[in-house]
């Protein structure tokens, strides 16, 4: 959802909003709390260019006859049924909408969490090597994606569901999955809610592929976890919060500082040794930052 423009008068805002509805552009109208302004938001980003163009035209000549389109707020009036006239159009409060997007868990985000927890439990927290082995990118130390080439194409994605291994301590395995699921819910739910399930699933797939391959090419197949994806989701949300706040993404500055700090420490001091998939973090973060910046740059029209 994107802001298209603002009006100082309710009458003009309603007139333009009605015209967008007439053009079959899904839009919402928000009344400012104290400023007295009225803001037009367009839901479908594929129609934003048209909406911006129409806003410029409307601003230059709001009295044009074409803006006297049938009022979508009062279709009954067109039929002469005055009894069904609504008293007032309904506006939305985007602050409440954005707040709810950060408090709830998205359907597909939850599905990823359930899958990760199920793999964790069914594998005996990583001790069942027969189950865990099927999720590694390769079960051969020098596999060179041999299983993938033989048709097991899921292996380039499934390492994200591994959160335990028999050689690791119980405490490490529990901390690994709990913290990763927390971050997945924190960032995944925002993206799923604000950008839609299709975008979210596509983004997660690409982050998994990019982060897994980054780690594999540097250190081999012995790794797993959702952290590469989470760093990508984090990078995207962090950039959008800083450079494109109108899209509704928000992040706790303390959490952002902690994640950047952990990322840096992992490389500088090699914290955790082989336990931490630093290159998966790097691959995911790089893609998330790049994608977020590209989106923010586009909608700020190069004013960054």
Short description:
By secondary structure, the chain is mainly alpha-helical.
Oligomer: single chain
State the CATH superfamily name of the largest domain.
Rhomboid-like
Largest sheet: 3 strands, antiparallel
User: What fraction of residues sit in β-strands?
Assistant: 5-15%
Q: Would you state the CATH class of the largest domain?
A: Mainly Alpha
Number of helices: 12
Low-confidence stretches: 72-92
In whole angstroms, the N-to-C terminal distance is 20 Å
- Spatial extent as radius of gyration: 24 Å
Provide the CATH architecture of the largest domain. Up-down Bundle
Mean pLDDT, to the nearest integer, reads: 83
Give the ordered list of helices and strands: EHEEHHHHHHHHHHH
Q: Kindly report the spatial arrangement of strands forming the biggest sheet.
A: 1-3-2
User: How would you describe the shape?
Assistant: elongated
> What would you call the structural class?
mainly alpha
Helix content bin: 55-70%
Under CATH, the topology of the largest domain can be stated as: Rhomboid-like fold
Tally of structural domains: 2
How many E strands? 3
